[in-house]
Amino acid sequence: MTNLVEMKGIKKRFPGVHALRAVQFDLRPGEVHALMGENGAGKSTLMKIMSGIYARDGGEMFVDGQPVTPDSPRAAQDLGIGIIHQELSLMNDLTAAQNVLIGREPRRRFGRLDEAALNTKTAEIFASLNLKMDPRTQVSTQTIARQQLIEIAKALSYSPRVLIMDEPTAALNDTEINELFKVIDKLKADGVGIVYISHRMDEIKRIADRVTILRDGAYIDTVEAADTPLSTIIQLMVGREVTQNAPDIPDTSQSPVALEVRNLSRGKEVRDVSFDVRKGEILGFAGLMGAGRTEVARIIFGADPRDSGEIFVDGQPVNIRTPHTAVQAGIGYLSEDRKHFGLAVDMTVRANIAMADLGRFTGRTGVLHETAMKRVALEYIDRLGIRTPSDLQEVRFLSGGNQQKVVIAKWLLRDCDVLIFDEPTRGIDVGAKSEIYALLEDLAVQGRAIIVISSELPEVMRLSHRIAVMCEGRLTGILPGGAETTQEQIMELATQRDPALAGAEETL
Prior knowledge:
Elements: E1 5-14, E2 17-27, E3 32-36, H1 43-50, E4 58-63, E5 66-67, H2 73-78, E6 81-84, H3 96-100, H4 115-128, H5 144-156, E7 162-166, H6 174-189, E8 193-197, H7 201-207, E9 210-215, E10 218-224, H8 230-238, E11 257-266, E12 270-278, E13 282-286, H9 293-300, E14 308-313, E15 316-317, H10 323-328, E16 331-334, H11 338-341, H12 349-354, H13 370-384, H14 400-414, E17 418-422, H15 430-445, E18 449-453, H16 457-463, E19 466-471, E20 474-480, H17 487-494, H18 499-506
Parallel strand pairs: 3-8, 3-9, 6-7, 7-8, 13-18, 13-19, 16-17, 17-18
Antiparallel strand pairs: 1-2, 1-4, 4-5, 9-10, 11-12, 11-14, 14-15, 19-20
């Protein structure tokens, strides 16, 4: 059988980084080939070469046995290669349909846009994904999860023979993931080859036929997914054994309350939410997509207004209306969308770390003290194990896991007493996850109050001293952390709908 795609001896360098070292990869028709490795292993770089985004520095690439050199995304699309990026690349001011068919919009006579045909064609693609969304919806109004589904629809609109999926489920809930896997099964049956990049181990066993592992830009091995234990795959990825211990739940009952929220409300998104988190405590937030967890975090941080409710820091009421006032009150927020709300990706690691506390490095005349910024940046690079050739490396060249560490460094420098982590390990490999878990636990030991919002139940259970569960904007319960709480108990609270609302829907 001729491979759909074959790559041999692929090499790629960036300033100060040897990203790929003679890497090989192949893809057969009708298979899901998982590409695994820690952040910075070279997975996304290899796929960007395959999809024409990057030019290779060495090696060969074949499509249907013929040598090719796609020098642009359009050239790759002409070869039947599509890609769904980990980082969203949608135009927020356009509608979903305009994004899906951008550059290929149906036209009437004299080049006029056929809006009806545009929306109809997009609706058909959405239906194939079982995605209930009006094609006329503006992208900026949608959640990260639904924007991810629009990206998937956009890739499918090209009817690709090769489809690269880079962390396609990172922002999806279980129902959406199941629908995506049905689409993948259909594509496989049609002979489409799928390259699947994910850090979720359970997905790999569920969906992949073969697994290729990269480490530090080098090819390690290709194995059959069904015959290879996950522990073996992890060891091949990280070059070491990774252990995930259950949390050691400290007794924080006598610790001062760092943050208290009373009767927080905002429309239907957040309804009468009250909770507290003590110094030295990790409070996890669980719930299904749309439960209101991120909305609560954004209100606390002043990124969104509140209709009512009170916020107390160290027992004192604070009137938080903007992120600036939240930071002044000692609250830091790590958004789930680090690309847009956590980092200035075109700036250096040094500048990003210093960003939240520039006053510390600014002289009387307004001149920045670069020497002091460098010293602090190098300290946090070492402390957090940020993999970068220098503190002057632009953040956009770092892997997702290392970008996340830069965001964490920024808030640690600001010395916030309350830290809110929204999906802290989204798009991060198993080795980097372990490091971030250890970091969060260390921050709690230091006396910081930590809130962790995660869509991954094992992660919430792994980290949390207590677990707050939300459903439809309401806090439905708070459970103890550790072995006392099961996934079933969390899901029971996560699906505990408001009887009044449910009854109202039934009468419609």
